[in-house]
Structures are given as C-alpha cells and as structure tokens.
Predict the 3D structure of the following.
Amino acid sequence: MYILGLTTMGEAAASLLKDGELIAAAEEERFSRIKHHIGFPHHAVAYCLKEAGITLAQVDHIAHYWKPWVLRRRVMHTIATMFQHRQLFESRIARGSDQFSGYYLPMFFMPSRIREEFGQAGFKFHYLDHHICHAASAFFASPFDTAAIFTVDGVGESTTVLYASGAGNRIKVLERIHLPHSLGQFYSAITNFLGFDMLQGDEYKVMGLAAFGEPEFAAFFQKQIVVPDGPGRFRLDITYVDHQMARNNRYTEKIERVIGKNRLPREEVLPIHENVAASAQKTLEETALRLVRFLREKTGERNLCMAGGVALNSVMNGRIAREAGFDNIFIQPAAHDGGCSLGAALYIHHHALNHPRKWVMEHSYWGPGFSSAECELALEGKAVRAVKLDDARMSSTVARLLSEGNLVAWFQGRMEWGPRALGNRSFLADPRTANMQEVINRKIKLREPFRPFAPSMLEEDAASIIGYAKPSPYMLLVFPVNHGWEKQIPAVIHVDGTARPQTVSRRVNPRYWNLIHEFKKLTGIPLLLNTSFNIQEPIVCTPEHALNTFLNSGVDYLVLEDHLIQKV
Ligand SMILES: [Fe+2]
C-alpha cells in the first residue's frame, strides 16, 4: 500500500510510504531551485513516484498537512487585535486576505489539482491537523515504543505548541497552546528586528549571533513579552513584539523604548544587536525548557520526540537534551514544515489505518541518487578533468587533499531530507585550520562571520570530543566541546566553545565514515568541517547542479560518486 504525504505552503515537500516504510522524501526547493519553495510540490511528488516506480493510480491514500477550514481561532485573534492596536489589526487583515486567496483556497482543490498534474487516480484524500503531522513525523519515525511528544513552531492552523504522548501506533494529544502565544513567531519577529529575514529562514543567524552577546534584555523579555502563565503555559504580548508587523519591518514604540531601534539589513552588527540576540535565545531556551519539563512530569516518559520549525534551534535542543531530564531524545531531521509531509503519511498508516510500526528512521538520505554513469554523462562538455577511483582510493586521496588544505565538494548517494547537508551533498574542509572561515568565504560563499561551521565526526570518537555518548546524526544538538579540543579543531568551534556535530555511523553511511576515518589516520583528528553544498541557493540535488556550483566557486576538487574532478 502506498501513502503520499504533502506539504503545500512554505518548505513544500512530498514523502512516500510503501507498506509503512519510507521510500522517498524530498523538499521541492531542491528541484525548483527556489529556497523554501512555497506552493504545490510538483517535482517532489514526481520524484517520489519515480523512485517507487509507480504512477499516481497506485497510490491508495494522500495525506495533506493542513486543515484549511480551521480558521475560527485566527479570525477571533484578528478581531481581538482590533481592541489592542490599530497597526496590529491592519497588518493581520492585509495578510489574512492574501493568505486565504493565495494559499488556503487552493488547498480545498488539492485532490483535483493532483489528478490534473499526475493523471486520474482513485486515492482517498485526508486533510490533517498541522501539529499532529509534526508530532507523527517525530514519534512514528523514532525508535521509541512510547514517548512524550513536543512540537513547537510559528503557527499551524492556530496551534503553536502541542503536547502529546505516543504509544505504539497511537498519538494522544494532551494540550495545545494557540495564537498569539507563539515561541516561533517571537523568535522570527526578533530575527527581522535584527535586520535578518524570517522569510529566508534566517532565525539560525540570530542563534549564531547570540553566542557573542550578553543576555542584557532577557529579564525584560521574560517579564514583559514571553511571560510564564502557569504550568506548561506562556503568554506572548504582541503589543511589544508582533510577528505580522515585523514581517513588514514595523515595530512598536513599546519595544523601541527599551531595546532601541531595529537594525536595517546592511547596517553594521553592533554589541547591542548581539545582546538582543542573546536575550531572545535565552528567553527561547528557558521557556522551552520549562515547557518540556512540564511535559516530562505530565507523561512520566523517559523518551522525548520533537519537531516543528523551532526544533531546528540546535542550541535550545542541546540544552533540552542535557537539562530537561529525559534519557533519550529524537528530533526528526526535517523538523520544519517540509517534515509534515512525512508525518501526514505516517499518521494515516499507523493512527488512522491501525497498522503496527516496523520502520525506524536511521538516516536522512531519502532524496534522489545518481549512478556513476549519470555523473559521467553530466561531465560531458564541461571544462574539467576527471579520474575514476574505487572507494578505498577515493577516501584516501580525498583525505590527503583535505589535510593539505584543499576544499572538496563531496557528492555521493541519495540527497539529504531536511535542511542539513550530512555528508552526501557537502563542502568539506580541514577543521584544524584557524582561518578556515576566511578561506571558505573566499572560495565558496560570503557568510556572516558570526555563523559557525559544524563538524562531521566518527560516532566512536564523539563522546571524547563533546561528552555525549549517544548518536546525534542530524546536526540538531549543540554541545560544549571538551577541554583540549579547541586548539586542535578551531574551524568548527563557536566563540562560546560549542559545536554542532553530526555523528557519523559506519553502518549507516560507510563511504562518508571511511573518508573521515582516513583523515583521522593521516592527522589524528576524527572529524571534518562540513557545510552544505550550495552557494546562495538551495543545496544541490543533481550532478548538473553540483558541477555548475563547483565551476562557479573557488572550490579545489569535486567528487561526483566515483569521479574525482578538477577544473582545467
Ligand atoms: Fe509547522
């Protein structure tokens, strides 16, 4: 039985299950080449069907990640703002009518749209609650029989936080928090206040910047803006910080009086901006920790599953892993809305159709892969010199090139699911080089100096570096690095002495593991710097994307499966 899951607004994506096992999952942006693609995921659906070797007629169920008719709370919230502040109300009315005609109405016609694009088919179509999809994407992909489930984002239909528990093939909703009380919207509003762009997913820049500042305004934020409101609850005071106004780069006097004017995109980053970032980050972390501890007490569970856009905040996640009192944590790598396509399909299979669980997500490599012959075809007519090497020669050669200071673009296997490149579509470099930030900026991409690079490390060595003995395969947890390493691997350690590792398993990704292992044999260092294979565009998907990006960069070598490539 085939079940297709869909995300059809921001981070559009599709996922396909066969008899409860994931066959394929991909984000539309990788095909359309539009970051955070908004709209129907045509290419992602086409890819999923192709990967499975089926047509739409063979799909039994299609699960959609949103209920477009659930509008009551949004309307009530908009009306409520009328009595708070005219600007708050106006910004909601303008956005609401755009959203309804642009996104919500087309959702009602989704079943006919799919048939128009992929042919007649007799599937059953299901509209599902957004946060239930986030919850299912985490719990049903996790290795846990039972778990507490915490989902947190900007907003779904109206929910911003969901507390749930999972047992076997059931998910039980415990409590919800609704608009306007949203941790995601608070953090996004601060993102724009600091001159970054929430629509480009720039929240991670605030997280990176936070490490440089002092949380000067954290007490103010937690007293006035994100205010505790009983066990497991908080209130967001939107008369201080409002997401809808911040989208249009407008801010209220109430916040400007305390933390000053907002930063414009090209203005210099000043210490006050670092302090605002540190304050927002601390507020997020402490609020989330309080909520997650409440969930632990409520459920008595030892396992925690998380998803939702805010669950991409790896500094917050690291603190939850260390401090919230759970033994185990699973965060689905596509924690953002794209991951809801997976959750929607899993929810139908398990909860709705009552099938038992047998599949566990052990990696994120669910996108397109390409054969050696396909890579060779892409090389034709390109100004490159290529040699073919077997796996053993390739890993020893590339390890040597990296240890000599070269930057290598590494393309192998199936593309990653979720926003992180995890060794199949990555730029790699030597983590020992102190000025690597400068080198990478020169050869690859201009990026803000406050954004740290992350390491991919051998799973076996992770505990000695980060003091965390469990796998962390998706770069979603930040840890303090053990004393003594900071001088050895300066390129992957942030200003506050932390790192955001990917632990690499030999069983799950042997080729990538072997490469890092060869590097360790040469240098004694069991890790590499890994940054995503893209330059101001979505991560590359095909050999053609990889070649074009390589040729337009200063990167020294490109590996396309078993081809080692240099420019001529
Ligand atoms: Fe979401």
In short: Residues 130, 134, 153, 156, 308-309, 337 surround fe (ii) ion (CB under 6 Å).
